[in-house]
Design brief:
Length: 190
């Protein structure tokens, strides 16, 4: 049986097999530790009976800086999925859905407008998963993913900013139709 629990600092030594998926973004240790420090209640793991980390979600609550409130790209207070990944041996068990729902519940508890995430345009499997959970594409971020950080002149891959409205957004103000056609630049995303 799998159990959910908060991510602990020592888990960075146990989650490599979960991160080996080429579509999982892997970060430096300081990034993981900053999430443990700032949003420990939104950084959770699904742990197998043998102690392996079968899946994890890194989430946060944020908004754009107040100086940007009149920008067309301003983001009101919302929950964000920074990373959600499931180890290959634990896929198709509903862990991604369970972890996502835990962040959505937290977003509702904190009165956030929506939950958002970024997904590679080529990652059809993840897009299908998120659409099945009620997310939709809000906008396309051109060249968001750079697979060669040493050469920024190379083209990157576009990302879809996907959103799911939460209880506060009764009129669906923060979702749009045909978001795939609404292109923005990476510098427009906070």
């Amino acid at each position: 049986m799998t159990s959910l629990r908060p991510f602990h600092a020592m888990d960075v030594f146990k989650f490599n097999h979960t991160n080996l998926d080429p579509l999982t973004e892997t970060y430096d240790l300081n990034f993981y530790f900053s999430y443990i420090a700032r949003w420990p209640h939104l950084f959770n793991v699904a742990e197998g009976q043998d102690g392996t980390i079968d899946a994890y979600i890194m989430g946060k609550l944020e908004s754009s800086p107040i100086l940007a409130q009149f920008s067309p790209h301003y983001l009101p207070f919302h929950a964000h999925i920074t990373a959600l990944t499931v180890a290959p041996h634990a896929r198709r068990l509903g862990l991604a859905r369970t972890l996502s729902q835990s962040l959505e519940r937290s977003g509702d508890e904190y009165d956030a407008w929506f939950v958002d995430l970024f997904v590679r345009k080529s990652n059809q499997i993840a897009q299908k998963l998120y659409k099945g959970m009620g997310y939709s594409v809000y906008r396309r971020v051109v060249d968001y993913y750079s697979d060669d950080p040493t050469n920024r002149t190379k083209d990157g891959e576009d990302a879809y900013d996907m959103r799911k409205p939460l209880r506060r957004d009764k009129t669906k103000k923060h979702v749009r139709e045909k978001g795939e056609e609404f292109a923005v630049q990476p510098e427009d995303v906070w």
